[in-house]
Amino acid sequence: MRQVNVGVIGCGYWGPNLVRNFARHPHASLMAVADVVKERAERTGAEFRVPLVTDDAQRVIGSSSVDLVVIATPVWTHYELCKQAINAGKHVLVMKPLATRTDKAEELCDLAQRKGVLLAVDHTFIFTGAVQKIKELVDSDELGELYYFDSVRINLGLFQHDVNVLWDLAPHDVSIMDHLMGCLPDEVTAVGMCHGGSPTENIAYLTVRYGHSFLGHVHVNWLAPAKIRRTIVGGSRKMLVYDDMEPSEKVRVYDKGVSFLADPNDSTEEQYKPLVSYRSGDMWVPQLEMKEALSVEAENVISAIRGRSELIVTGQDGLRVVRILEAAERSIQSSGAPVKIRPAIAAA
Questions:
Q1: CA gap 119, 123 in Å, rounded
Q2: pLDDT range class, residue 157, cuts 50, 70, 90
Q3: Which among 119, 168, 280, 292 is most buried, taking Cβ atoms within 10 Å?
Q4: Distance CA 66, CA 22 (A)
Q5: How many whole angstroms separate alpha carbon 309 and alpha carbon 105?
Q6: 78 C-beta neighbours (distance < 10 Å), count
Q7: First to last CA, the chain
Q8: pLDDT more than 90, % of the chain
Q9: What residues contact 223, with CB distance under 8 A and at least 6 apart?
Q10: Given the DSSP bridges, would you call strands 91-95 and 339-340 parallel, antiparallel or unpaired?
Q11: pLDDT-derived band of residue 348, with 50, 70 and 90 as boundaries?
Q12: Distance (Å, rounded) from C-alpha 33 to C-alpha 45?
C-alpha cells in the first residue's frame, strides 16, 4: 500500500507530539494541520513543512489527500469531529477519552464499522515499554491470579476547564487496568469533591469490582503537593510496582505473597482459624523497551491502516473506558452509590 497521508487537528499541548511522530514515520506523509489558533497551526506546519495549514478543521476532514485524521482537541469536541471524519471515509485516531457519553462512543464504533474505517484511541500508556511488560507478565501467568490494581495519579494542576479530574487523569489508569483485564467490571463506585471554587471535581477516588474477586482502585487529584504516578498490581504468585516517575527502573517485580491454610485433620473449631503463610523472595527489574510510546502507537496505527497488523487500542477499548468513567460520574453524583455496568456490545 502507498504512504498513509495524515492530517492532525489540534496543535496545542499534545498535538505537536503527534505531528512529530507521524512526520517522522517512514510510511506516513503529514499533509495537513489545523488549529483554531492559526498561529499555532502555522508554527507547527512550518517546522514540518506541512502543505495545508489552516484554522478550519473541516478543510482537513474534507481533504482528498488525507487518509487518517488525528484529533487532538478538547474532550467535548471529540464526538463531533470523529463523526464527521468517519462519515468522510477517513480513518481516525482520537485522544482520550473517545467521548464523554457511552451512547456517543457506541455510535462512533458502530459508524466506523459501517464505513469500513479504523477507529483508534490514544491510550498512550498502553504503548509504553512498562505497560507492555506488565501485560506480558499478566498474560504469561507470572503474577498468578490477579487480586487488585491500585493506582495513584496526582499532581498540582493542570486544571481543565471542560472536564473534571476524573475525565482528565483517570482514563490513563483505567485504560491500563482495562488492557490487563480485557473485560468490563461488574460494578463501579466513586466519590469526588470540588475545592477552592472549582466548578468541577478536582479530586476523585474510583473503585471497580469484577466478578472474579478482582478489585481496582484509582486515585486522581489536581491538588497534590507532589507529582506521583504509581501503580501496584497484586497477584497470587507475585506482585509488581510500576512507578512512572522512576527514570529507569519503572517496573519492579516482587516474589512476595501470602497464603491462608487450614489443617485438614483438625475437626475442631480451630480449623476455622487461618494459618497464615508469608512468602518473601527476590525482587527483580525487567528490561523494558525504551521507544517513545507515541512512536510505537504511530507505527501500530499506520501498520493497521496498511493491513500489516491489528490495532492495539480500538474504538471498542475506548468504549469500555468511557463506560467505566460514565458509571463513575453517575456514582459521584449519587454520593458514591454503586453503579452496575451493563454488558458491552460485542466487537464485530
A1: 13
A2: confident
A3: 119
A4: 13
A5: 24
A6: 25
A7: 24
A8: 85
A9: 156, 195, 196, 202, 203
A10: unpaired
A11: very low
A12: 6
- Nearest residue to 233 (alpha-carbon basis) of 259, 254, 250: 254
DSSP-assigned beta bridge partners for residue 270: none
Adjacent-strand bridge partners of 157 = none
Helix (H, G, I), strand (E, B) or coil at 17: helix
Alpha-carbon dihedral sign for residues 41, 43, 49, 51: positive
Alpha helices in the chain (DSSP H): 15-23, 38-48, 57-61, 78-87, 102-115, 129-139, 165-181, 293-305, 315-333
> Please, are residues 216 and 148 in contact by the beta-carbon 8 Å criterion?
yes
C-alpha distances in angstroms, 252 versus 237, 247, 319? 14, 13, 30
Label residue 345 by pLDDT band (50, 70, 90).
very low
Query: Could you tell me if 192 and 135 are in contact, meaning their C-beta atoms sit under 8 angstroms apart?
Result: no
Residue 26 burial (CB < 10 Å; 0-12/13-18/19+)? exposed
pLDDT of residue 344: 45
Q: CA 327 to CA 182: how far, in whole Å? A: 18
Q: What is the pLDDT of residues 85-127, one digit of tens each?
A: 999 999 999 999 999 999 999 999 999 999 999 999 999 999 9
SS3 83: helix
338 preceded by a cis bond (ω within 30 of 0)? no
Asked whether 143 and 137 are in contact (CB, 8 A), the reply is yes
Sheet holding 203-209, edge to edge: 275-284, 251-261, 239-243, 223-235, 146-156, 215-221, 203-209, 187-193, 339-340
